[in-house]
Structures are given as C-alpha cells and as structure tokens.
Amino acid sequence: MYPHLPRSVVASAIASQLNQTQAILFHQLELPVQPQATVTVRQVKIIEHHWTTVEHQSVLQVRGTYRLSGAGWRQQPRSKLFQIYLQRDRDQHQWVSFHPSTPDYLQQENRQAGPIQTLQTN
C-alpha cells in the first residue's frame, strides 16, 4: 500500500538534504561563514515511489526531479534528479527523513534529523 505523499514533504526533504550537504562542504573546506541564502525547491515531480528495506528499516524510496529558486540562485534551465528515503514515525503522524549509514567524517552536528511534516491520519 502506498501512502499519500504530499509534494511539500518531498520538497522539504530535498531542501533539508541540500542544506545538510552545504553545511558539510563548508565545514570540510573550513570556510569561515555559511551563507544564509534562502532556496526554494519547486516543481517537484515524483517519478517513482515504493516501499523498500534499507538497513533493516522499512522506508519509502522516492525518486524524481526538482528545480531550485531563491535569493542568490540563478534560474535553473533544467530539472535536477533526486532520490530520498522517508519513514513514518511510530505514531504514523509525521514523515521523517531516513539517511542510510553515513561515514563518520560526514556526521556533523549540522546534520538535522527530525520530522519533515506533521500529517493527520484518519
């Protein structure tokens, strides 16, 4: 059974992943200040989604395309590909990003784990 997956949840997960990647790069490159540019993930198109098992966890694998816009970002002429993993929390009320095992050198305090969006379930 495939759950209803709002595009806003996927867009939030993509934005979170982009912010985490940016924070890791700034840390690894030892840059003094992280930019506070606001990006908006837009035109999310879900091409495929299905339940799978990763690291003994049931996750929803989502693939598709998106575009970015926002301060400091030029208009992107082409869509970018994405692949994310999402889980439902224990109460089935929220979507949470799932990140497969990450090498220790990439695990930073900047890495955010938590709910993407609270959903009401019936």
Describe this protein's structure:
With 122 residues, the chain is α+β, with helices and mostly antiparallel strands. 18% of the residues lie in helices and 39% in strands. It has one helix at residues 7-28; strands at residues 39-54, 57-70, 80-88, 94-97, 115-118. Strand 3 and strand 4 (94-97) form a beta hairpin. It is globular, with a radius of gyration of 15 Å.
Outline:
With 122 residues, the protein is of the alpha+beta class.
What topology does this entry show?
Elements: H1 7-28, E1 39-54, E2 57-70, E3 80-88, E4 94-97, E5 115-118
Antiparallel strand pairs: 1-2, 2-3, 3-4, 4-5
Mean pLDDT across residues:
76
Question: β content, as a range?
Answer: 35-45%
Main beta sheet: strand number and arrangement?
A: 5 strands, antiparallel
Strand order of the largest sheet: 1-2-3-4-5
Structural class: alpha+beta
Radius of gyration: 15 Å
- Any low-confidence stretches, pLDDT <50, length ≥5? 105-113, 117-122
Number of helices: 1
Number of strands: 5
Specify the overall morphology: globular
Distance between the termini: 15 Å
- Helix fraction, binned, reads 10-25%
Order of helices and strands: HEEEEE
